Amino acid sequence: MKKIKITTLILLFSLSLTFAQKKQKYDGSWESLQQMPIPSWFDDGKIGIFIHWGPYSVIGHRQGGRGYAEHVPKLIYAYPQYYYKYVEKRWGAKPPEFGYKDIIPEFKAEKWKPDEWAKLFAKVGAKYVVLTAEHHDGWANWDSDITPWNAVDMGPKRDLVGDLGKAVRKQGLKYAPSYHRERHTSFFTTEKYRVHAKARPDILAEIEKMPKAASLYGPFGFSKASVDEYVARWKEIQDKYHPDFLWIDDIPIFTRDGNKVAKGIMKPEIEYYYDQCRQMITDFMNNGIDRGQEVYLNNKGANRNWPDGIGCLEKDNLKLKVIGPKWQSCTTFGSSFGYLENDGYKTPQSVIKEMVEVISRNGNFLVNIGPKADGTIPAEQVRLLNIMGDWLKTNGKAIYGSRYWKENYQEAGHLAFTTHGKNLYAIALAKPTSFTIEGTKGWDKDEVVAVSLLGSKAKVKWEMTSEGLKINAPSDVDKLQYAWSFEIITKSEQHHPNVIQTDASQALKGTKKVDLDGKH
Q: What is the pLDDT of residue 302?
């Protein structure tokens, strides 16, 4: 009887605690949102798959090395000297007689098998999936009641966002339809990032010939109506698909055309937009609380969208040189995010190296694929995914659930570091022979319990020296590839939370800047 009473009390306490936690909603202020926790699924998961897929995938071409392939719908009109000739040669006509809207019927996804995609993502070690729900072009990959330019009413004639969501969740993965519409109002205009932008003449001519095209190419510039539609489209995604993550691209208008939102200087339309973004994020976070769902978001760009602390820091192909505040690198295998025929790809060695460096510095690795319009993934991208997955099967203990150490890199031995409780992982990014971990100098002689190489059954020779822990690679080191993870079991907690660079601006110093034509 006594045990039953104790159990009942524990249950009641647990329920009351859960109820109290559910009541702690965000009050709509940035300060409140800055208190949001990092979900464990995101902090522990580390590996995500990004997917850029839409009508632009039909084109799969760009002029030389200029811009990303998914930006070609804009570039067609921005650089007519080249692209009009290309479009006319390929399709028999050019704008305004034939434009981007007329390419959409060729986006059919006729070979797409979402369950096969999801199984592949799970097999290669991804823990979450980010699919472009809408890119800058105005096309909706979901079953939208707001715009006729959607994947159910046109093109594939199926709900791409919904079908993939069902498939990846069957595999136990988290799901995030990404949203890029904040940059749409400048996509088909004569000038970028203007509050009052004007459409290109041939875009207007296309709309005159087909008035329905106005809801694809427009609106142009920012107004209360365009902002309200921006929020409504996301709300539709949120209500229909219950995303685990609100992925928003960077918003250039916050620092362009006289706007400096960080300093409180905004034109009225942008002040309204900024306010609506804050409310949209608040609604998303509170909806997660109501659903008992751990949700999160990103804070994109060198000029962040929101105050620091709201979501993870993120940039395209971001490579922090320091251990930064929680961040994410959306990373390409090649030179583009959307499908690009004959794209050049990174080597497996460089992919694994980049992944390890990102994770060792408190980042997540969101690696991108660009499927073809028919729903097949280019063979080289599949090959790189499988190589990454095979490496993770062997070395996952050094990645999943890991945290950063007090050092993130050591030149001698080309070492990166992660930790998991009392385990330290020294990951050699070049084939190791013998190395000493400088950060262990001064450790007690009996601090280290054991050392092994993940994926190897051979004995690893090691000793504590006056210069630190010295490790000799085992005899079968040649059987492993790309990066070598040494597991060092110690007697002390190895994570050092206080070494993080909490100032995002300082953490971003020295990182590569990408021209906005080459961004999402």
A: 87
| Pairwise CA distance, residues 188 & 218, whole Å | 8
Q: Are 179 and 520 in contact (CB under 8 A)?
A: no
CA dist., res. 368 & res. 340, Å (int): 13
**How many Cβ atoms from other residues are within 10 Å of residue 127's Cβ?**
19
Q: Does residue 449 share a domain with residue 397?
A: no
E strand or H helix at 128:
strand 128-134
Strands laid side by side in the 461-465 sheet: 434-437, 468-472, 461-465
- 388 and 479 together in one domain: no
Q: Is residue 511 classed exposed, middle or buried when 0-12, 13-18 and 19+ CB atoms within 10 A define those classes?
A: middle
pLDDT of residue 12: 47
In the numeric block, which tokens belong to residue 473?
Answer: 């690679």
Q: How many domains does the chain have?
A: 2
For residue 154, give the CATH number of its domain.
3.20.20.80
Question: Which residues in the chain come in under a pLDDT of 70?
Answer: 1-23, 512-520
SS3 annotation, 157-170: CCCHHHHHHHHHHH
Q: How far apart are CA 235 and CA 284, in angstroms?
A: 8
Please tell me the distance from the alpha carbon of residue 141 to that of residue 112, in angstroms, as a whole number: 14
In whole angstroms, what is the distance from residue 21 CA to residue 13 CA? 12
Within 13 A of 303's CA, how many CA atoms are on the CB side?
Answer: 12
Placement of tokens 């319990």 in the chain: 449
Cβ(410)–Cβ(438) below 8 Å: yes
* 201 & 327 share domain: yes
What is the per-residue pLDDT for 512?
65
- Give 438-487 as a DSSP string: GGGTT--TTSEEEEEETT--SPPEEEEETTEEEEE--TTGGGS-S-EEEE
Does one domain contain both 420 and 347?
no
Q: Is 291 a domain residue?
A: yes
Which CATH number belongs to the domain containing residue 422 in this structure? 2.60.40.1180
Instruction: Please give the Cα distance from 283 to 232 (Å, whole number).
Output: 12
**At a CB cut-off of 8 Å and minimum separation 6, what does 18 contact?**
none
Which structural domain, as residue segments, surrounds residue 456? 409-496
Q: Provide the pLDDT for residue 18.
A: 47
How many alpha carbons fall within 13 Å on the CB side of residue 4? 1
Supply the DSSP string of 35-86, one letter for each residue: TPPPPHHHHHH-EEEEE--SGGGGT---STT-S-GGGHHHHHHH-HHHHHHH
Domain presence at residue 23? no
Token couple for 126? 């991804």
Q: In sequence order, what are the beta bridge partners of 332? A: 368
